[in-house]
């Protein structure tokens, strides 16, 4: 060590530069060198820290074979070999996958934009139903039907087809051509919008899958949503066809679409919308968590607590309850059940209507009336409205109870993240608005603006519940990636831990010195992480300043402490600086050893292992110079402080 410390500054700087030449040259510069191609493929991490990462099985076997074939000429080379080798070896290297580990953020924005488009078409479809425009186009032509009538003759043909429908003959027999055009354009825009939703989802799905922007699981989900959109178009025509049947001409029949098919059409749209929304939110959450793995690991650990498991289950059950309530609203709309009992909470003379109205034998289709109850529950407007009232009241009560549970339960309140608390309040506010819209729609005999707003409120309420669910759900796959990234971040300080394991007598004798050494190593690792391609001169100066700053740390206040204690602390600071310098010494030696082992230069120009060990020795010599400089600066600081204290104590 004395010979190392005695090296001249110029010689040490040249040796340090030579040892770390490849480590502090960027990848772009190395690519321009024909004889020395880049040995490090990652542009996001410093080659200096890259050397300390675990190697693949194939590389470990190659290195082990090369090392075993060469004689062990120096202890430093043996140290590098012992750290570079992995105790676990595999029989075959892992195959590289063409699929990415994470989904592109642009996929999330596209999914949310598609969800917004589906939200809009759901609202416009409700307006089409409320204006009784859904049966104006009596044919289903997915391709040629996208072109509207162009002249008067085309309009006359379309109007003639509509005149043959039950709706025209029984309800709109006095309608003229201009009135027909109004309802025709409503239905035509609704169908065209559906085609646009399908195309704008199918084409980007193929693009993202071909370009490798999504994971295999997400690719399967996108294909499933595409299939759901196509199925939705088929259900739409199946629903319209139910309103064009000839049996609707019978006396007592009302020309409307089947409430079952209407609920299926609306439910499929809801499922497609929620699938887009959920997957878009999950991708954004994934990128947000991977941005800071250390903090995200703490957040995921909090969400994984047993106290929040019942809350997550309640949120899942609540989403199902809201969906069922919305589907019961579709039955109300399909039967025009909102036009009877336009009061709340009363239904006639009481809270519930008379039993003979709720279970009317008219709706039974069997002689033994075995289907009396379920057919009345799904086809009797009186009982359908009562069911919707009960479900809506239950939903409101459940949401308020869930909010109270999150607010007044100490375990849940302390574990629930701030974003989840805000999402819970959003659900409470939205359900209050939705209840007000529903009651107002009844009181004012289902006006079109209020009825459309009530339908939009149902989808908005379901949206807020899903947003809340995304904030409390624990994504298992993302959690695995976050923990892996956090583990890699912690592994950046592994060289310091290796030094302490290598020198237990020197570094572990004093806990204070051990803490100072760790602090110095963390600063050094942080420097190379933030500046992966930093110039060697600035890195050299920063390491010197780090060792000096550690030596100057004062654990106690001079004005309040005893003089002897302060002097003793200063001596400990000097020793701490020397310990930090020793950390830098072995850190540099290990870096040189790994640089020699991982370099591709050995494969190209036939250099031997001894040459790489010499490079490692030069690196250790450069770090040894840092050791001497840091210790000298700290000792000088201690002498100055000791002199100042003695002068102060000698003063009268």
Output the keywords.
disordered N terminus; 3 domains; 652 residues; mainly alpha
Please give the structural blueprint.
Layout: H1 2-5, H2 9-19, H3 27-31, H4 47-50, H5 57-69, H6 75-84, H7 105-130, H8 152-163, H9 166-170, H10 177-210, H11 216-242, H12 259-291, H13 293-303, H14 309-335, H15 355-358, H16 372-379, H17 381-408, H18 410-415, H19 418-443, H20 448-472, H21 476-490, H22 494-502, H23 504-507, H24 511-530, H25 536-551, H26 563-598, H27 601-605, H28 609-650
Helix pairs in contact: 2-28, 6-26, 7-10, 7-12, 7-20, 10-11, 11-12, 12-13, 12-14, 12-20, 13-21, 14-17, 14-20, 16-17, 17-19, 19-20, 22-24, 22-26, 24-25, 24-26, 25-26, 25-28, 26-28
Catalytic activity: Fe(II)-heme o + 2 A + H2O = Fe(II)-heme a + 2 AH2
Biased composition (Polar residues): 60-73
GO molecular function, one term: oxidoreductase activity, acting on NAD(P)H, heme protein as acceptor
Range of helix content: over 70%
| Computed CA radius of gyration, to the nearest angstrom | 37 Å
Q: So what's the oligomer here?
A: single chain
Overall average pLDDT: 75
Could you state the order of secondary-structure elements as H and E? HHHHHHHHHHHHHHHHHHHHHHHHHHHH
Question: Judging from the principal axes of the Cα atoms, what is the shape?
Answer: elongated
Structure characterization notes:
GO terms for molecular function: heme A synthase activity; metal ion binding; oxidoreductase activity, acting on NAD(P)H, heme protein as acceptor. The chain crosses the membrane at residues 107-127, 192-210, 222-240, 260-281, 315-341, 388-405, 426-446, 452-474. It is elongated, with a radius of gyration of 37 Å. The longest helix is centred in the last third of the chain and has 42 residues, at 609-650. Residues 1-7, 34-58, 63-94, 493-514, 524-537, 551-567, 589-610 and 618-622 have low confidence and may be disordered. The protein folds into three domains: 2-69 and 491-650, no CATH class; 104-291, no CATH class; 310-473, no CATH class. It is mainly α and 652 residues long. Helices cover 71% and strands 0% of the residues.
């Amino acid at each position: 060590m004395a010979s190392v410390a005695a090296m001249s500054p110029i010689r040490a700087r040249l040796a340090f530069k030579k040892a770390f030449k490849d480590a502090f040259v960027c990848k772009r510069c190395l690519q321009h060198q024909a004889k020395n191609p880049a040995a490090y493929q990652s542009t996001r991490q410093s080659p200096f820290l890259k050397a300390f990462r675990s190697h693949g099985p194939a590389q470990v076997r190659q290195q082990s074979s090369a090392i075993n074939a060469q004689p062990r000429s120096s202890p430093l080379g043996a140290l590098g070999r012992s750290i570079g080798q992995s105790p676990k070896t595999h029989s075959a290297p892992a195959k590289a996958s063409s699929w990415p580990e994470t989904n592109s953020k642009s996929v999330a924005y596209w999914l949310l934009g598609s969800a917004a488009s589906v939200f809009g078409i759901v609202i416009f479809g409700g307006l089409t139903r409320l204006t009784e425009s859904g049966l104006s186009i009596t044919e289903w032509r997915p391709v040629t039907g996208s072109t509207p009538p162009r002249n008067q003759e085309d309009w006359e043909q379309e109007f003639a087809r509509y005149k043959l429908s039950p709706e025209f003959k029984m309800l709109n027999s006095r309608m003229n051509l201009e009135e027909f055009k109004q309802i025709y354009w409503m239905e035509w825009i609704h169908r065209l919008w559906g085609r646009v939703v399908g195309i704008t989802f199918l084409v980007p799905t193929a693009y993202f899958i071909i370009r490798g922007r999504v994971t295999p699981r997400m690719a399967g989900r996108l294909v499933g949503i595409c299939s759901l959109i196509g199925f939705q178009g088929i259900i739409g025509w199946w629903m319209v066809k139910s309103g064009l049947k000839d049996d609707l001409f019978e006396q007592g029949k009302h020309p409307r679409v089947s409430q079952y098919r209407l609920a299926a059409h609306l439910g499929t749209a809801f499922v497609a919308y929620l699938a887009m929304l959920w997957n878009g939110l999950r991708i954004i959450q994934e990128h947000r968590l991977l941005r800071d793995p250390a903090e995200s690991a703490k957040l995921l650990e909090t969400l994984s607590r047993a106290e929040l498991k019942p809350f997550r289950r309640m949120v899942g059950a609540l989403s199902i309850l809201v969906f069922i309530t919305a589907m019961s609203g579709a039955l109300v709309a399909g039967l025009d059940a909102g036009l009877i009992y336009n009061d709340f909470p009363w239904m006639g003379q009481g809270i519930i209507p008379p039993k003979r109205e709720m279970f009317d034998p008219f709706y039974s289709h069997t002689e033994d009336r075995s289907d009396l109850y379920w057919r009345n529950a799904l086809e009797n407007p009186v009982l359908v409205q009562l069911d919707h009232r009960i479900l809506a009241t239950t939903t409101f009560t459940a949401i308020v109870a869930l909010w109270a549970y999150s607010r007044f339960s100490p375990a849940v309140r302390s574990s629930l993240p701030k974003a989840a608390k805000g999402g819970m309040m959003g659900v409470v506010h939205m359900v209050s608005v939705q209840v007000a819209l529903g009651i107002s729609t009844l009181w004012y005999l289902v006006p079109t603006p209020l009825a459309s707003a009530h339908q939009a409120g149902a989808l908005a309420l379901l949206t807020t519940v899903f947003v809340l669910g995304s904030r409390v759900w624990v994504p298992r796959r993302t959690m695995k990636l976050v923990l892996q990234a956090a583990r890699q971040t912690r592994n950046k300080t592994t060289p310091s831990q290796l030094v302490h394991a290598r020198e237990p007598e020197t570094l572990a004798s004093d806990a204070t010195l051990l803490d100072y050494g760790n602090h110095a190593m963390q600063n050094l690792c942080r420097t190379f992480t933030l500046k992966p391609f930093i110039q060697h001169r600035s890195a050299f100066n920063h390491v010197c300043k780090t060792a000096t700053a550690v030596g100057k740390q004062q654990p106690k206040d001079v004005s309040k402490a005893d003089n002897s204690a302060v002097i003793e602390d200063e001596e400990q600071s000097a020793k701490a600086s020397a310990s930090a310098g020793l950390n830098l010494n072995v850190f540099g030696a290990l870096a040189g050893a790994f640089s020699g082992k991982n370099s591709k230069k050995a494969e190209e120009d036939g250099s031997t292992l001894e040459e790489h060990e010499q490079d490692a020795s030069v690196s250790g010599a450069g770090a040894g110079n840092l050791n001497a400089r840091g210790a000298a600066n700290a000792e000088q600081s201690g002498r100055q402080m000791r002199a100042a204290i003695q002068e102060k104590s000698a003063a009268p």
